[in-house]
Amino acid sequence: MSNSYPNMLAPLDLGFTQLKNRVLMGSMHTGLEEEKGGFDKLAAFYAERARGGVGLIVTGGIAPNFRGRLSPHACQLSFPWQVGKHKRVTDAVHQAGGKICMQILHAGRYGYHPFCVSASPVKSPISPFKPKALSQGGIKRTIKDYARCARLAQKAGYDGVELMGSEGYLLNQFLCRRTNERQDQYGGALENRARFPLEMVRAVREAVGPDFIIIFRLSMLDLVDGGNDWEEVVQLAKWLEEAGVTIINTGIGWHEARIPTIATSVPRAAFSFITERLRSEVKVPLVATNRINTPDVAESILASGQADMVSMARPLLADSHFVAKAANNEAEDINVCIACNQGCLDHTFSLKRATCLVNPFACYETELKLDAAPQPKRVAVVGAGPAGMATACYAAERGHRVTLFEKDEQLGGQFNLAAQIPGKEEFKETLAYFAQRLKRMGVTVSLGQPADPELLKSYDEVILATGVVPRVPNLEGVDHAKVVTYQQVLRGEVEVGKRVALMGAGGIGFDMGEFLSEAHESATLHPNTWLAQWGIDPEYQSNGGLIERDSTAFESAREITLLQRKTTKPGKGLGKTTGWIHRTVLKDRGVTMLSGVEYLKVDDQGLHIRHDGSEKCLEVDTVVLCTGQESNRSLGEMLAEMGKPFHYVGGADVAAELDAKRAIRQAAEIAAAL
């Protein structure tokens, strides 16, 4: 047992049962819940996390009735015949030495179907369906549905349930004036708004008896107008304690809040202050949550008394053995969650199975495997960006003898550039993980070594992860001294003037916009600056915890114009759950965004364009090419001429928007097939 994390690894006595440590795996919807045969895959997914040492797992949200479903085909537990498939999950987790609670989630007005209900008929800004107000009879029936769902969960072998009362779902909708406009005993004063959730908690406790964990996920910071104030949050927590909850978990922000709460630009443990504030008010254990992604962060929260437990969802997607590695003094071997949302939340909100950018095996435990190779081979991997490093590690894991060639003097490729973007500092963690893994797996790493066909001909297998080169458009004056590529900027090879035009408004264009407009050190590294920038009040003087945003965050280091040829809204192709954040930051900083642009030429005067039917010149000092990239295939062409077989992986295979998620997954698939 590690002495480095004594608080994180300390057991937690709940009276009738004991948790082996202070790590709670937070609820995440994986999409397996609705797939054919998905519960067997789900059992493997959760059992793997139980084997990895997590103290208590909470499942993705399961609806207590039809109207509570998130989507028409979402998972529901209301009938005895549904118990069997859940039992597969609980049996697998218990056999692996873990404990698991089922989250009961009623979507309320977030239900993506015409049968949704809420406290009042107030439509959500993120769903097309206007909810019906629950009648008093409907409330009573819903309470019974919750109690029945909890009893069935108990029958299925779960150790407890989590009642979802945050993020803007049904219980939250009753608790806040924003969505509760009722005139009856379930609306108005807080005791009335809290009546339904509290009656429901008491009904659940009565249904399951005293020796069953009930977690309530309480919205401690709504981050929306019409949210609760601090005194109301404290009162709710006290009432919940009286009503019989075992643990109170922290909820931060509604889904419709225009404030980032879990994206990579959010500082680590940015919201633990709110859990700490509540801790002196109640006796039940409290769980801190959001952007806790390393054992050191978890330990410091627990050691300083901010919480009794820490919740991590995506970090256990990224590394199922997070806790075991910390306990074995192998924290440097943890595959750290970089909070990119690309494989998890972006997938969930697109109704695709969740997975993880840095761990393609997540949610594919039964399908994507690295079995021992029947015949170890000599494998050469060329290029040490994410695709090359991942391929080398996975191939070595199967027992192959792997050499990784990299022409530069450092590992990382384009990820080194990405990690320089303000708010993307976490990307360095992935590079550190793979560098450590290469050592552990005994991969021979040859830096400063450009590979040629002669060098590669003796290998049994050759994988080319040679990456991409920036695409240079066919434009008059593109060789002018003003014109530079995004790679040259991020490598510090060129001076960038005060007035800048960015050609291309995809992910790279937005990254460059943030990089070049940042007037201060990244707020992600300064939590108080970041809270002020987004208008979050740590003093909690007003409802929802909101204050006026700090206008100094809107200063721009440069005058920037972001241009694209497409006529669609700039940034339309950015991540589903994070794109709005990047658009907001650039808009705040006064970046001009133009669509439907025709580029004419670059000269001493600047960048000449045609826009809205007229020609104009943007008098800029620097034009940065963010016009996409092309696969770097020169080595592949030489090998093909020689007749030497090889595989492409990552950007060398497909040069579309730099996609580390696809590259790392492809690395796993190629390595599994070698």
UniProtKB/TrEMBL annotation:
Signal peptide: none annotated. GO terms for biological process: fatty acid beta-oxidation, unsaturated, even number, reductase/isomerase pathway. Its cofactor is [4Fe-4S] cluster; FMN. Residues 378-638 form the FAD/NAD(P)-binding domain. It holds the Pfam family Oxidored_FMN. It is an enzyme of class 1 (oxidoreductase). Its EC number is 1.3.1.34. Keywords: Flavoprotein, FMN, Iron, Iron-sulfur, Metal-binding, Oxidoreductase. Residues 9-330 form the NADH:flavin oxidoreductase/NADH oxidase N-terminal domain. One of its GO terms (molecular function) is metal ion binding. Gene3D superfamilies: Aldolase class I, FAD/NAD(P)-binding domain, NAD(P)-binding Rossmann-like Domain. In the N-terminal section; belongs to the NADH:flavin oxidoreductase/NADH oxidase family. This is 2,4-dienoyl-CoA reductase.
